[in-house]
TrEMBL record:
Keywords: Cell outer membrane, Ion transport, Iron, Iron transport, Membrane, Receptor, Signal, TonB box, Transmembrane, Transmembrane beta strand, Transport. The keyword Membrane applies. This is Iron complex outermembrane receptor protein. The lineage of its organism: Bacteria, Pseudomonadati, Pseudomonadota, Alphaproteobacteria, Parvularculales. Residues 256-696 form the TonB-dependent receptor-like beta-barrel domain. Belongs to the TonB-dependent receptor family.
Length: 729
């Protein structure tokens, strides 16, 4: 269910223990209490753990939020959009416009954002540009997934579930006191599901199989200096679902691909963090040191058909082999001086990304990295002087990227009067990105040569992006009554530019014109928060100026025979504008029955001048539904002693949206409504059993898309249902 948290909680996201009362939320790590009505920003908090059928991946939280959409790039890499802001990008070199955190640790690539969910307390969503409170800069907002912390009152649970589409799920969590003031906790989950799409032309596994395992351990030492040490490991196996090609006549939840592109997934994620918090000289101090890493090997049928237009020689498959690690350190200090409350922070990070991107036709010879037929896009990259007379078969692109960041930030509240508070924040960020790589084509005789499309030079090189930015925010909040607040805020943020991780055609790929630039957002918001009778109501009007929005631009790729293949690249448009309104309400109608809902209205427009992308002007931003609305309800009723009945349901409606900035009808997802529901019995000794269903309306939704030979889309899972049993202790 939805609850509201103050942005001050976001200033110490990794550390709070929240005590929720009717009007205040106490952030114990800062020894500060803040009434919900006093917060000049839109912040949603999802209390997790009781959703019908349980959430499986991070992308599932979007189903509980209005104004938040998620594009699941390549079917497994979530990229969040908040209030229309955020590039729909399937490459993994850059973070999304909405910064995603895991227990306060920033996740620097969209490969990490699809992690398995288990033992979570809540997810916290900030719906405005961010940078003055914590972490990294972000142009649309921030989402943090917060785990249950060890402690004297920590809960324990064991849950098992089974259902259709091969669903099997076991999750357990619990902890104990290890010594005086020292507590430990261990949590894990094993999940298996799929195939969830029906492949009508080849192996069933191409419909998507997920075999996931996760384990997390943490130790908390209480005292003058509180210490929390935690580590996690997750494995993702199975088979990545293949996309659907729009040239095929298929029913809902169907795809049609052959066996050549079906590839086992082998992804591993691991990391750890050390939190220190205490007090010195009147300052509340906090430190977060973290390490995150992954290795990833997966692929799928690139063209989404057994034989594009009936020609098997147009077949294309792809794979990604990635390795990544990141270090980060954050220091924050907060203190109150009379009517001034101040927070000052420092943030630094270093990450290293390496990727091999291979495209081939037919069955793959893994040692030679070539297929059994020529990839249709390979001949156009050989250049004016081919390195061999034999047939060119496949393309390999390698890129390595190092990123270093440093920032200083501050957020300050000044009580101008007893009812009027001024908030001022600022951030200076420095960023250096070094990239190098090459693109080669591979011949049947074993020859390898650099790509040289149009004879513009070999596709090998390096470059450096160096940038520093000032961003900030300001707000006035006026308490017009004990439980009524009006606020006006303005915030700026940005998302950095970077290198394109797609096929390197020639030397221009690594030159300045082959890079994409940073995007910036300025957001103005007028809002209200208050109580009316038994209901808590919030509303906001907002306007966002979106400069240099990053977007995947589709271009024509000429072939030697005069034909054209459509390809794309991450680039910048000129500008865009967003107008919007948002409202939410929560109330308890009677004992045991609670209802919450929210609606977000958006009007987005790309503003593009003359040039190659002039036609994009006037289009809506990708994945920006004009209307998104969420409704959730829960009911609990006691029966005989120790027994009870419960029911829950949540639904989200999204009006139609375009899958990319080009705004073509054939690349549009029409309006849909997804419904999840659960009904069950509570039993003595903390046990319960339930019957649940997700996507009860059986909607078939495009979760992302790309242009190649035709247009390919990754699809949402169909209706799933199952039984679950849980024991809480």
């Amino acid at each position: 269910m939805l609850r509201r948290l103050p942005p001050l909680a976001f200033a110490l996201l990794a550390t709070p223990t929240l005590a929720q009362e009717a009007d205040t939320i106490v952030v114990t790590a800062t020894k500060t209490a803040a009434a919900i009505e006093d917060i000049p920003a839109s912040v949603d908090v999802l209390t997790l753990g009781e959703e019908p059928g349980r959430l499986r991946g991070a992308e599932d939280v979007a189903s509980l939020l209005s104004g938040v959409q998620v594009a699941v790039a390549n079917g497994s890499q979530p990229v969040f959009q908040i209030r229309g802001i955020g590039a729909v990008d399937h490459q993994a070199l850059t973070p999304g416009a909405a910064a995603v955190y895991r227990d306060g640790v920033f996740l620097a690539t969209n490969v990490q954002t699809g992690f398995l969910l288990y033992d979570l307390a809540r997810a916290e969503v900030l719906k405005e540009p961010q940078g003055t409170l914590y972490g990294r800069n972000a142009s649309s907002g921030a989402i943090d997934f917060v785990s249950v912390r060890p402690g004297p009152d920590q809960p324990g649970s064991l849950r098992v579930g089974a259902g259709n589409k091969g669903y099997a799920d076991v999750e357990a969590a619990g902890g104990t006191q290890l010594a005086e003031g020292v507590y430990g906790r261990l949590a894990g989950r094993v999940l298996r599901q799929g195939p969830f799409l029906d492949n009508v032309a080849g192996p069933r596994e191409a419909g998507g199989v997920r075999e996931a395992f996760g384990l997390r351990g943490s130790v908390l030492r209480e005292g003058g200096v509180e210490v929390l040490l935690s580590g996690h490991y997750e494995h993702e196996g199975g088979v990545n679902a293949s996309p659907r090609n729009d040239t095929l006549d298929l029913a809902d939840h169907e795809i049609a691909v052959g066996a050549d592109g079906v590839r086992d997934t082998d992804n591993d994620f691991w990391g750890g963090r050390l939190e220190l918090s205490g007090e010195a000289g009147g300052w509340d101090l906090f430190s977060l040191t973290a390490y995150e890493a992954y290795s990833q090997d997966y692929g799928f049928d690139f063209d989404g058909t057994p034989a594009p237009y009936g020609d098997p020689n147009l077949n294309a498959n792809l794979s990604y082999d990635r390795n990544f690690f990141q270090w980060s350190e954050e220091l924050r200090g907060s203190r109150t001086f009379g009517r001034l409350s101040t927070m000052i922070g420092l943030h630094g990070s270093a990450d290293d990304f390496a990727q091999d991107y291979l495209i081939w036709c037919g069955a793959l010879d893994r040692a030679a990295q070539t297929g059994t037929c020529p990839y249709v896009g390979a001949p156009g990259r050989v250049g004016p002087t081919p390195a061999s007379d034999s047939q060119v078969l496949s393309l390999l692109t390698r890129i390595n990227q190092d990123r270093r960041t440093a920032a200083v930030f501050t957020s300050n509240d000044v009580m101008v009067t007893d009812t009027l508070t001024l908030t001022l924040g600022g951030r200076w960020t420095y960023e250096r990105i070094e990239g190098e790589g090459f693109g080669i084509h591979l011949f049947a005789d074993g020859t390898r040569a650099y790509n040289d499309r149009d004879g513009l030079g070999a596709a090998v090189g390096s470059n450096v992006i160096e940038d520093d930015r000032l961003t900030g925010n300001g707000a006035l909040r006026w308490r017009v009554a004990p439980s009524q607040t009006v606020y006006l805020s303005y915030a700026t943020g940005y998302k950095s530019g970077g290198f394109n991780g797609e096929v390197a055609n020639n030397a221009g790929h690594y030159q300045d014109e082959g890079l994409f630039g940073a995007e910036t957002v300025g957001a103005l918001e007028l809002g209200y928060k208050g109580r009316v009778g038994v209901a808590r109501i919030e509303g906001a009007l907002f306007h966002q100026d979106y400069d240099d929005p990053q977007a995947r631009i589709f271009v024509d790729f000429p072939q030697p025979d005069g034909g054209v293949i459509v390809s794309n690249s991450l680039s910048n448009l000129d500008a865009a504008e967003v107008w919007g309104a948002e409202a939410s309400a929560a109330l308890r109608l009677f004992e045991g029955f609670e209802v919450e809902g929210s609606v977000t209205l958006l009007d987005t427009e790309i503003q593009q001048g003359a040039g190659a992308n002039e036609a994009f002007g006037g289009n809506s931003l990708p994945f920006a539904s004009d209307v998104t609305a969420v409704l959730a309800a829960s009911y609990e009723r006691p029966l005989a002693e120790g027994f009870g009945l419960f029911a829950r349901a949540d639904a989200k409606h999204s009006s139609g949206f375009y899958l990319d900035a080009e705004g073509l009808t054939e690349r549009r997802q029409e309006a849909y409504t997804m419904l999840n529901a659960e009904v069950g019995l509570t039993l003595p000794r903390g046990a319960r059993v339930s019957l649940w269903s997700r996507n009860l309306t059986n909607e078939d939704v495009a979760v992302s898309g790309y242009g190649f030979i035709g247009y390919d889309t990754f699809r949402s899972p169909p209706r799933t249902w199952g039984l679950s049993a849980e024991l809480s202790f």
